[in-house]
Amino acid sequence: MRDTIMNSIVDKVDDIKVLPGVLTRIMEITENPDSNVYDMEKIILSDQALTTKVLRLANSAYYGYGRKISTISQATLLLGFNTIKSMAIAATVSPMMQGELKGYALDSNDLWIQSQTCAIISRHIAKKSGKYDPEEAYVAGLLRDIGKTILNEYMVDEYIKVVDLIMDERYSFSDAEKMIFDFNHAELGAKIAEKWNLPDHLVEAIKNHHNPDRSEAEGKDRILLSIVHIADAMTMMLGVGLGVDGLSYTLSEDSLDLLEIDANDFSQIISDVSDLIKDRESFLLNN
User: Fold this and answer.
1) What is the rounded CA–CA span in Å between residue 243 and residue 171?
2) Rounded to whole angstroms, how far apart are CA atoms 234 and 114?
3) Which of 46, 137, 192, 235 is 20 to 30 A away from residue 273, measured at CA?
């Protein structure tokens, strides 16, 4: 039975569509040093829904501009190519993450708000530390729980078993998933990222964000993984979309040391980001 469930879940991963062509083109434009603002504007304007969502994000309190951003070219000039790429990725994956996840006791939009919060914290840590590109950190934080969207329907039936393992055996949530399914939502999320041909450092950050000390990542990849791990912990501590995930994960001391974050720094970051995530309505891109 377990193998049947596992195979059916993996089959679903194979059925997931690749990222749409417009997003692939945006990523190419971002990487091309000869691209200009109007190249970016042209490709985004080809998708009306994407245009609306990017402008909604650009005008959120998170970016804090005093005047309204009304065009894609204006947003690109003010925010930069990498930020627009991050917004486009967020807009593209948002439909997958805004539904109710009964298997995780998450209401509609809970996972999306939680993911946006983790992304914003990841970006803040990267920027504050100066150790990683903030927009890459944002994307990694945003996608770190994408596997839950696929595993969710199987979690509904196995929910009680998972909770029992957490409460009675003191397992973490991801370890309880692994006991039941032979893999957890983070490993499944990494498969999705591979399906989308995302770079290896993003795949690694998604796969091991709960357990960075189990990873063999080194250098910059290890830094990104540590950023997302700490951002995920802070998201839980802020009580954003807890569901039954709760605070069942251990915070890696090695990750804190790598980023040179002590207890005072940790508290200050939480204080800083508390203001950044107040505008949760702007996260709801389908409104």
Assistant:
1) 16
2) 11
3) 192
CA dist 26 and 84 (Å) reads 9
Average pLDDT over residues 248-274: 91
Tens-digit pLDDT profile for residues 28-53:
999 999 999 999 999 999 999 899 98
Distance CA 186, CA 109 (A): 19
Q: Cα(141)–Cα(146) distance, rounded to whole angstroms? A: 10
pLDDT digits (tens, 9 = 90+) for 85-134: 999 999 888 888 988 988 888 889 889 989 999 999 999 999 999 999 99
Structure tokens at 286: 């389908």
DSSP per-residue codes, 130-159: TSS-HHHHHHHHHHTTTTHHHHHHHHHHHH
Is the backbone of residue 211 left (phi > 0), alpha (psi -120 to 50) or beta? beta
Question: Quick one: tokens of 34?
Answer: 């000869």
Instruction: Give the CA angle between residues 142, 165, 107 to the nearest 5°.
Output: 40
pTM above 0.85, yes or no: yes
What are the angstrom distances between the C-alpha of 239 and each of 88, 233, 274? 27, 10, 11
Q: Which residues contact 21 (CB under 8 A, 6 or more apart)?
A: none
Q: Decide: helix, strand or coil at residue 262.
A: coil
Residue 25: CA atoms inside 13 Å, Cβ hemisphere, count? 12
The SS3 assignment for 101 reads strand
Opening angle at CA 285, ends 208 and 27, nearest 5: 60
Percent of the chain residues topping a pLDDT of 90: 49
pLDDT of residue 104: 81
Dump strand ranges (E) for the chain.
none
Task: Give Cβ neighbours of residue 11 (< 8 Å, ≥ 6 apart).
Answer: none
